[in-house]
Every structure is written in structure tokens, then in C-alpha cells.
Design brief:
- The chain has 281 residues and is an alpha/beta fold.
- The protein has one domain: Rossmann fold.
- Strands 1-2-10-9-3-4 form a 6-stranded mixed β-sheet, sandwiched between helices.
- α9 links the parallel β9 and β10.
- α7 packs parallel to α9.
- The radius of gyration is 21 Å and the shape is elongated.
Length: 281
């Protein structure tokens, strides 16, 4: 039986105020501003239709059989991840999970079994946000897979060894920190190797963003060294080379115009239908 580490989550006054505000304030779609949902079906379909898994060219081929990302950090998907992670808007998590499921999981081989392993979040960040953002996304992803008769499971194979913070660190510092930041959980090891039921499956190490790739690469190397047969890397977003991670508002404006147009057409058809019903009556 796998032992799970207990993490005590403490809420600050700021957390309570934010949650009360989100309860009494109506949800607004992050794409078009429509009331009622964090991400309306129109915006979600727009995002999914425009994205597909893309190869991470600079990934270590000796570690990962396949390394991919879904979208750039300066696009709408990146904006969702940033708000979910740093804004602590927990409702965004299931929306990100559905996007990842439709774009990435749906393309996986149905003949293999996969274990999705989240990159572990530091305890201080979990306490600050009130949840473990990557663990929550993969929990929902596994639920969607079960509902669709899929072949993926989520396992917390990795754990933090040191609570280092990489935000704002340069590439050299990130690589040095990455070698000491995570380790394979002892509960998944048997004689220094991954347990048979784990190592025979394809392990997909998942992180929210690929900046230098240092963390994902070191985590992949540890899992590979522990006897994993096949290791994949998945980054939900990736920094665009040569550009700072600033969200490009043009894409949001495009989605907003398209959704507003679709909503207007739907409303027009609804009014025409009501008018015809009145005439018949």
C-alpha cells in the first residue's frame, strides 16, 4: 500500500476573502467574458481546435522517449495556467484538465498503460495557494480517463527533496537546484528499483511549464535510473524562446469576438423561434 504524505493547508484572511468574493460574484468566462462559467464551451472548443501536442526540440532524448508541450505560455492556455497557479482560482483546474485530456490524452496509444506523475509542488506553495495545482489537474485528468474508459492513472511517484524556488532564477541556477529538488518516493521502490507494476508502464512526467526543462529532465533521469521502461515528458505550456512570458491579449480578443458573434447568432435564432411559436399560437 502506497503511503501518502499529509499536508496541512492553512487559510489566511486573504484566502477567505477571495473565496467569499468568488462565491458571491458571478463567474466570467476568461475568453469572452460571458457570465456563468470560468471557460464557456465556445472558448474551450476554440482553444482545443487550435492546439496540438508539439515536440520539445531541446529535450534530452536519452531520458525521454517523447517530450511534448501543448501551448505557449503567452497564449490563452498559458493565461489560464498562470491565473490558476498564482491567482489560486481553483475552478480553473478542471478546465485545464479537460483541455489536456482532449488535446493530449486522446492521442495516446490505447494499447499501452500510462502513469501520469505530477512534478511535486513545494509545501510552502501548497499552503500559500490552498491546493497542489499539478496534483489537482492530474486527479481530474485521471477521472476523465476513467469515465471515458481510458488507460491512465495518476501516481505521486516524485516528492520534494528540498524546497527550492526556481521563479526568477537563471538557467545555471535552475539546473543546479533541479538536481537536488526532487526524488523518487521510497514507497514506489523495491530493492532500489521501481516496483514491477510501475516500471512496466509508460510514465508521463507532467509539469505546468517548460522554461529551461531542468526540473522535468532531472525528474525523468531519476525515474529512468530507477528502472522505468519508458518515460515521456509533458509540459502544459512552454516559454517562447527569446520572448518574456507576457500574455498576448490579441488572442483573447479574437476568442471574445468569435464567441460574442456565436452567442448573438444563437440568441437571434432563439428569438425567431419564439416569434414563430407566437404566430402559430
Amino acid at each position: 500500500m502506497v503511503k501518502r504524505e499529509k499536508i496541512v493547508v492553512r487559510f489566511t484572511t486573504k484566502d477567505v476573502v477571495r473565496r467569499l468574493f468568488s462565491f458571491f460574484s458571478p463567474l466570467l468566462c476568461r475568453g469572452c467574458g460571458r457570465k456563468g462559467e470560468i471557460l464557456c464551451s465556445c472558448c474551450k472548443n476554440y482553444i482545443v481546435s487550435g492546439l496540438r501536442p508539439k515536440k520539445i526540440q531541446e529535450a534530452d532524448r536519452g531520458t525521454f522517449k517523447k517530450a511534448e508541450y501543448i501551448g505557449f505560455r503567452d497564449e490563452i492556455l498559458g493565461e489560464l495556467v498562470e491565473e490558476y497557479k498564482y491567482g489560486s482560482v481553483a475552478e480553473i483546474g478542471p478546465e485545464i484538465a479537460e483541455i489536456v485530456y482532449r488535446i493530449y490524452v486522446s492521442r495516446l496509444s490505447p494499447e499501452k498503460e500510462y502513469i501520469f506523475a505530477p512534478m511535486p509542488t513545494s509545501k510552502s506553495h501548497i499552503r500559500e495557494r490552498g491546493f497542489d495545482h499539478m496534483d489537482e489537474i492530474l486527479t481530474e485528468l485521471a477521472r476523465l480517463s476513467r469515465r471515458g474508459g481510458g488507460n491512465i492513472k495518476k501516481e505521486r511517484i516524485l516528492e520534494r527533496a528540498k524546497n527550492t524556488v526556481q521563479v526568477g532564477a537563471n538557467e545555471e541556477t535552475r539546473r543546479r537546484q533541479a538536481k537536488e529538488a526532487v526524488k523518487v518516493c521510497r514507497s514506489f521502490l523495491e530493492g532500489g528499483r521501481l516496483k514491477k507494476q510501475i516500471r512496466e508502464k509508460t510514465i508521463v512526467v507532467v509539469d505546468d511549464v517548460w522554461t529551461t526543462g531542468a526540473s522535468l529532465t532531472e525528474a525523468g533521469k531519476m525515474i529512468k535510473k530507477a528502472g522505468a521502461r519508458e518515460v515521456f515528458a509533458l509540459a502544459i505550456t512552454k516559454n517562447r524562446q527569446g520572448l518574456s512570458p507576457v500574455i498576448y491579449s490579441g488572442e483573447v480578443e479574437t476568442i471574445s469576438r468569435q464567441c460574442q458573434k456565436q452567442n448573438q447568432q444563437s440568441r437571434k435564432k432563439e428569438l425567431q423561434s419564439q416569434d414563430q411559436s407566437k404566430r402559430k399560437g
